[in-house]
Amino acid sequence: MSRAGNTRIGACFLTVSAIALWPGVTAAQGFTCPKTGGNMVFAQEAKVNSLDQMTSATISTRNVAMNMFESLMTRDENMNPIPELAQEVIESPDGLTYTFKLRDGVKFHNGKPMTTEDVVASFDRYKKVGIDRGILDIVEKWEATDAQTFVIRLKAPQPTFLENLSSFSVPVVIIPKENADAAAMQLKSVGTGPWEFVEFVADSHVKLKRFDGYKPDTRYKDIDGFGGYKVACLDTVTFRIVTEAGARVAGLETGEFLGAEDVPAKSQPTLKNNANIVLKPLQNFWVQIAIPNLSAPPTDNLKVRQAIQAALDMEEIMEAATDGAFRLNIGMQYPGQAFYTEAGKETYNQKNADKAKKLLAEGGYKGEKVTLLTNKDYSNMYTAALVMSEQLKAVGINAELLVLDWPASVQKQQNKADVGWNFFFTGYGTNTSLGGVAAMRFHAPPFNTYRPKGDIPDAEFVTFFDQITNGKTLDERKAAFSRAQQRMLDQVLAVPFGTLTKVQAVRTTVENFRPFRIPRMSNVWLKN
Amino acid sequence: MGRYILSRLLQSIPVLILVSVISFGLMKLVPGDPAILIGGPTATPAELDNIRQNLGLDQPFHVQMWRYYAGLVRGDLGTSLLLGKPVLEATLERVPVSLSIAVYSMVLTLLIGLTCGIIAALNRGTWIDQASMVFALIGVSLPNFWLGLMLIVLLSVHLGWLPTGGYVPWQTDVVGWFKTTTMPAVSLALLQVGLLARITRSTMLEVLRQDYIRTARAKGLPEFIVIAKHAFRNVMIPVVTVIGVIFSVLISGSVVVESVFSVPGIGSLLGSAVLRRDYPMIQGGLLLVAASLLMLNLIVDVLYAYFDPRVRYDNRR
Question: What one-character DSSP code corresponds to residue A429?
Answer without folding.
Answer: -
